[in-house]
């Protein structure tokens, strides 16, 4: 592999997702300038907050060599917990309870994976159904409206110095996630496990404890996303998070985190969530049917994966 090719792939690793975001933005600018107006881009940024926060946690799970398919059900359960409890104990205690539920769900996932030695895909697919069932039972299978509790809207309608609170929260989450990933032993251990679990175990890393912590992170971020969703929709529902896990995973993959584990891109996941939100917003403004919106997202995802595949082939050929 010559120096020019190496420089290109190094550039792509750092800025590839930004290039895709810019390209999509330019296409929308040509089709309808309103899509990339300041007001709509602010809306895009705000609406990407829910997916983005969950994607921050999902980055750790995928970097560790796994998946968490239960985050959508955790989000649904959290919205039900907030909606059912806020009339009785108030907003902040309800939010705290919801976050604890998210952490507990993460602990359950981690224990099943590490103690029963079940693959993350299968384990979290099972807990996805279990947590959704818990949400259905807890809410009696009904939507729980929070129209009388205006205070919950503070997260979705308020701003600080003109910046929406949702945007501030998602940026704060990603700053914390980046620092944890890059600057802590937990981040180092997560990458080591994703690269080679057997080698990580042989080097003295407590793999089970680290994996449980990873799924606690995904559960907590899913719960934070659920609180934001509760605020935005003023509703709790057992089906509100259906398909949400796919958006989170797609954001992470678009952002450049390796599906094989061992390499994560925290800020790439943030931009991936922005890209999904921009595509949906732009296609909505253009009046495109939802089915074709999913097709467009699939095309972008396949393009990003194809580039990664070409990189691997190029590197293998150079050896």
Automatic annotation (TrEMBL):
Which locations, inside or outside the cell, does it occupy? Cell membrane
Per the record's keyword annotation, is Transport included, yes or no?
Answer: yes
Short name of any one Pfam family annotated for the protein: BPD_transp_2
In which domain of life is the source organism classified? Bacteria
Q: Which InterPro entries match?
A: ABC_transp_permease
Transmembrane portions of the chain = 12-31, 51-83, 95-114, 120-139, 160-181, 210-228, 266-283, 295-314
Molecular function terms, GO-annotated: transmembrane transporter activity
Keywords for this protein: Cell inner membrane, Cell membrane, Membrane, Transmembrane, Transmembrane helix, Transport
Record protein name field: ABC transporter permease
UniProt organism field: Anaerotruncus massiliensis
């Amino acid at each position: 592999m010559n120096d020019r090719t190496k420089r290109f792939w190094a550039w792509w690793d750092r800025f590839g997702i930004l290039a895709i975001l810019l390209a999509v933005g330019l296409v929308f600018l040509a089709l309808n300038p309103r899509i990339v107006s300041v007001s709509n881009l602010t809306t895009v940024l705000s609406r990407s907050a829910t997916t983005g926060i969950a994607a921050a946690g999902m980055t750790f799970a995928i970097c560790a060599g796994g998946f968490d398919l239960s985050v959508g059900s955790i989000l649904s359960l959290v919205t039900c917990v907030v909606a059912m409890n806020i009339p009785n104990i108030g907003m902040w205690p309800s939010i705290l309870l919801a976050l604890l539920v998210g952490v507990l769900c993460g602990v359950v996932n981690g224990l099943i994976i590490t103690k029963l030695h079940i693959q993350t895909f299968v384990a979290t697919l099972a807990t996805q159904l279990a947590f959704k069932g818990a949400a259905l039972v807890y809410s009696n299978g009904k939507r729980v409206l929070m129209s009388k509790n205006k205070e919950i809207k503070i997260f979705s309608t308020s701003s600080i110095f003109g910046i929406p609170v949702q945007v501030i929260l998602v940026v704060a989450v990603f700053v914390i996630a980046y620092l944890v990933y890059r600057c802590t032993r937990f981040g180092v251990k997560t990458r080591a496990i994703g690269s080679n679990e057997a080698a990580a175990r042989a080097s003295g890393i407590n793999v089970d404890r680290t994996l449980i912590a990873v799924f606690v992170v995904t559960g907590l971020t899913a719960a934070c996303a659920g609180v934001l969703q509760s605020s935005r929709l003023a509703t709790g529902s057992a089906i509100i998070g259906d398909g949400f896990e796919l958006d989170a995973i797609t954001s992470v993959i678009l952002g450049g985190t390796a599906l094989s584990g061992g390499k994560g891109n925290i800020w790439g996941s943030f931009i991936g969530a922005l890209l999904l939100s921009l595509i949906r917003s732009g296609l909505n403004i253009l009046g495109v049917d939802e089915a074709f919106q999913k097709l467009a997202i699939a095309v972008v995802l396949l393009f990003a994966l194809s580039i990664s595949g070409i990189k691997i082939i190029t590197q293998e050929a150079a050896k």
